[in-house]
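Box S1 | Example of a co-folding query
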Amino acid sequence: MFTNAAKCSKCGEIYPSNKILTVCTKCGGALLLQCNLALAAETISKKALKKRENTFWKFIEFLPLSSPESIISLCEPYTPVFRLPNSCDTTFKNVYLKDDGRLPTGTFKARGMAVAVSRLKELGVKRVAVPSAGNAAAALAAYGAKAGMEVYAFMPKDASENIVKECIYTGAKVYLVDGLINDAAEVVKRFKEKYGWFDASTNKQPYRFEGYKVMAFEIAEQFNWDPPDTIVFPTGGGEGIIGLWKGFKELIELEWTDKIPRFVVVQSSGCAPIVEAYEKNETEIKEAWKTAQTVASGLRVPKPYAGYLILRAIRETNGMAVAVDDKEIISSMKDFLRMGIYACPEASSTLSSLSKIENAGIVDPHGKILLYLTGNAMKYFDVLALKSEETPVLKKGADPLLTMGARIT
Ligand SMILES: Cc1ncc(COP(=O)(O)O)c(C=O)c1O
Ligand SMILES: [Zn+2]
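Box S1 (continued) | Returned holo structure for pyridoxal-5'-phosphate
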């Protein structure tokens, strides 16, 4: 409500925020909206926030909408923070989880699209296109449907069938692209003018970051304004980590907290361009990852747009980037399920990363670590094997103990 400009994260160019924005027209850098924090803080205080209902929209003053009336909502809860059960084998003593699998459409992508769709509707946008591994498209499809927008989703042709169905049945027009998300992005780039689409690609517009910055506000409040020392975040295109970083920087400027957590980015070893660039101490991702393949489809981004910002967020928070392999991811997904925690493969990678973080030796084992669960396992049961011996068929009248595959003890 107090946002009046956007600034290029590369060259510093300023743009008025009452126009539809994409990327910097001078250098192609990602634009970041500028909220007048001093003015926002005059309207809402930490104390006053306590009296508000715990929903995603609690921090509306810091979001780029002209009015609360413009909110397009699918009922977004404040997502829960809870401790990792003690049964879990790790040397870290204070591990917490935040579960965004409870959001509409089952992933944290709802945050970005809730804000983007609300703002784009205010700006008069009617047709939106997005390249996506799946979950961003699903969130745009659902919020777009609620807003009465036309949504075009371009996904890799091996995208999850479940998520493709989710997009179609919420109302998006889906195209499967021969290639990966970068190829899907090329289609949107090439045809957006011809068909009058707003290009809602990851990091190519400033609105989605604003939804993710709310993660920082929620976390800070949930930890009583003393945020965790480390946040572990599964990263593909990077808008989540960039938004989280932006949120914490705003909280520091507001003097509502005095520390930014260390960011640990987790990727799959099947597609780890950020880890590679981090390890080489580079400031930009130079080349697309070849033969990108992982069960954590949201992490399959061979060359994120504005990779320099992701690397900056890691460096400036004294963070690190680690890769875990698909076997480890699936094993963590199963471990989580046995604890009653429904984490998708992307989210499960955070649990797999703990031993690697420990080996790096830079994270205090007694500090507070938050594993960010970005999505719900429900959407991904297709990645888990089903063995026939685990589903013995019981003939009519037969004793389960005497049936092949019996496991009654
Ligand atoms: C469930 C899930 N987690 C994590 C990510 C990675 O997010 P980002 O693209 O913001 O890095 C995605 C991306 O699609 C996702 O779907
Ligand atoms: Zn620029």
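The first helix runs from residue 37 to 43. The chain has twelve helices and 13 strands.
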